[in-house]
Amino acid sequence: MVTPVIEVRDLEKIYPDGTRAVRGISFEVEEGEFFGFLGPNGAGKSTTIKILITLLRKTGGTVRIMGLDVSRQTDAIRRVIGYAAQEVGVDDDLTARENLMLQGELYHMERTLLRQRTDELLELMDLASDADRLAGSFSGGMRKRLDLATGLMHRPRLLFLDEPTTGLDPQNRANLWIYLDRLNKQEKLTIFLTTHYMEEADKLCNRLAIIDHGQIKTLGSPRQLKQELGGDVIALRFATNGQDVTTQAQQACAVLSGAPFVANIDRFDEGINVYAQNGGSVVPDVLRLLDDAGVHVTQLSLTSPSLDDVFLKHTGYKIRDEELDRNWRNQRGGPFGRRRR
C-alpha cells in the first residue's frame, strides 16, 4: 500500500493560555493531490500547517510527512518540503535572481545546478524579463510569485501554502491560481493549501476539508460536497412585518420542512436556504406555501450549490466577502504593503 505524503491522526494543539486551536483532527493527503483547508481566520488552519512544517510543536496526536515523524525528524522533513507564508519573505533590496540564488545557497546547491534552477523558476513564474530588477520595485502579484519561487528552489516533493493569495486584488489572485495549477498538474507537485476564499478552494483543490473552531466539519472533493446538499439552492429573505427575521425564518422552516420536494433547509442570518431538485420548477410551490402561511418573501435567488452553501451547512454561518477584504487590508495597512526590514 502506498504511504500518504501527509498522515495526521488525532492532532491537537493547546496554547499556554489554554486556547485549543486544533481539536483532534485526522486526515491524509496522497502524492500528487492538491489538498485544501478551507475556513475563516482563527479556524486552526495556520496552526495546523505550522505543525506540519515543523515550526510549531503539537500537543497531542501523530503527524508524519513522507513517512517522517514531525517530532523527531524535523531536519529530514525540511529538506523535502517547500513553504510560502501569508507574509511575502523576499528581500526588497535584492533582485529577483539574487533572491533565488540566495535561497539556493542556503540549501547548499551546486553552483551550476543553482543557476539552472534559478533560470527555470524565473521562466516558470513569468519573471525572466524582470530577473535583474530589485524585488522592491515589483507589484504585489510579482512579489507573491517570486516568494513562491523561493520555496521551490530545492525541488520539494511537497509544497505548503498558507493563505497564498491574501492581499492580492482579484486579477493577481486569478493569475497566481494559474501558476499553482501548473505546478500541481505539470510539475506533479503535491500541494497543501490553506485559504478562506471559496472560489480558490473550488478551483484548485482535488479534495478539501472545511475546518472551523479547530475541528474538521467535512472532507471531500468540491463536487462531492456540493452534490451532498441535495439539489439547487433557493435562498429566501423575509419581510419582518413587525417580527424579527428569526421568527420569520423559523415559521418558514416549519412550513416548508414537510414539503415532499424539499431535500433540506439551512438557516443563515438573513433568511434560509432551501435545497430542492429542479429548483426552478418548485419555486412557485415554495412561494405559494409561504404566502398561505403569511410569510412574505422580500428576496429570492436560485443557484446551483456552491462551497459557500456547503460551508453554511456544516458551520451554520457564511464567510462574508467584505469581512475577508477588511481583514487583509488591516493586516498590513493595505493590499500591497511590504514587510519592513
Q: What distinguishing features does this structure have?
A:
alpha/beta; Rossmann fold; Alpha-Beta Plaits; 2 domains; four-stranded antiparallel sheet; 12 helices; disordered C terminus
Any overview of this molecule?
- With 341 residues, the chain is α/β, with parallel strands linked by helices.
- It folds into 2 domains: 6-220, 3-Layer(aba) Sandwich (Rossmann fold), CATH 3.40.50.300; 230-304, Alpha-Beta Plaits.
- It is 37% helix and 25% strand.
- It is built from 12 helices and 14 strands.
- The strands form 3 sheets. It has a 6-stranded mixed β-sheet with strand order 6-7-8-3-9-10, sandwiched between helices.
- Helix 3 crosses helix 4.
- The longest helix is centred in the middle third of the chain and has 16 residues, at 170-185.
- The N and C termini lie far apart (48 Å).
- Residues 322-341 have low confidence and may be disordered.
